[in-house]
Every structure is written in C-alpha cells, then in structure tokens.
Amino acid sequence: MENEITELRKEHVNFRKLLDLLEQQLDLFHYGETPDYPLMTDILHYMTRYPDHFHHPKEDVIFGRLAQCDSRVVQRVEGLARQHHVIAESGARIHDNLESVLNGAVMPRRMIEAPGLLYVSYYRTHMDQEESELFVLADKLLGDDDWKKINGEMRSHPDPIFGHDIEERYRAVYRHIVQTTACAG
Distance between CA 158 and CA 149 in Å, rounded? Predict the structure, then answer.
C-alpha cells in the first residue's frame, strides 16, 4: 500500500530536519561556541521516543513481511533491524549525556560532539538505505492482503512535533524548524 511507504518517507523528511538542526548545534562545538543544550536534549528526547517506539517498529513489521515474501532480502532486513537497535541505544546515551549537562554535570565536549555527529551520519545513511532498497521493494512486492496484515500488527501514535498537536516540550524545537525552513526558503 503506497500510503504506508509514503507516510514513512514523510517521517524520514521530518527526521532529517531534526538531524540537520542537531548537526547545526553540534557544529557549534567545533567553533568553540556553546550550543543550545535544551534544544539538543529535546531533539534527542523526541528521536528516542517517537521514531524508536513507533516509526522503527512499523518498519520492522513491514520489512518482516517483505522478508516472508522474498527470502533474498532477509539479510538486509535483519541488518536494518540491528541498525534500529544501534540508533536507539546511541540516541539514548547521547540524550543521557545531554540531560547530565543540563543537570549541572561537567563533561568534555567530545563526549557529546563526536557521538552526536556519528549518530546524525549513521541515521541519515540508515534512512537512505531503507528508502533506496526496502521501501522500493515493499511498493513492488506487497499486496493488499499483506498491507491488511501489516496494519493489524502496527501501533500508531500521533507525532508530537509534526502531528496536529505539538506537545509543549517540543514547541521550541518546532519553532527552530519553522525558522530554519523560512530562512532556507
């Protein structure tokens, strides 16, 4: 069902906006400037909540069904599922470090900068792989019956930044995205 893949692609666009914003903040370390720690913390809070708890499990269900239809993609599916775990674990570690800084801990910038930039790069590469390989195959190989089964297994949850109602915690993140988009346009 094209709608599900289209929705996943739209979510990837949104995640890229957040990764871009996070990268901009991390780049400030390189120039000896102080990033917006609360903003970075809120971005990582979102990334470790919405994508890790709703988006990636949805992909896992779709990709699992795809592997049942075509055994040639099993290794790619397993690899991407492992990447979901790596993304979740590294995002949680970075978030914890940022929370520690907000709570007064002193830590070297490299404890946030290097893992943060690696996270951004890894996440982008991961999404590119999904879009260029498995999303294309899912569009081609999965039929209406497959999508009915997939939809029966998926949990949905409104997106707290890009949905209809922006959660209070994420309002500053949303404002930054709107400002960045307005400046780029």
Answer: 21
Q: What is the pLDDT of residues 98-107, one digit of tens each?
A: 999 999 999 9
Digit-coded pLDDT (tens) for 18-64: 999 999 999 999 898 999 999 999 999 999 999 999 999 999 999 99
Tokens of 158: 């409104």
Q: Retrieve residue 56's tokens.
A: 């990636």
Return the amino acid letter for 63.
F
Contact, 3 vs 21, CB < 8 A? Answer: no
List the chain domain ranges. Answer: 2-156
In words, the CATH class of domain 2-156 is mainly alpha
Q: How far apart are CA 164 and CA 144, in angstroms?
A: 28
What is the C-alpha to C-alpha distance for residues 48 and 87, in angstroms, rounded to an integer?
9
CB within 8 Å of 24: residues ≥ 6 apart: 180
Sign for the pseudo-dihedral over CA of 92, 62, 54, 165: positive
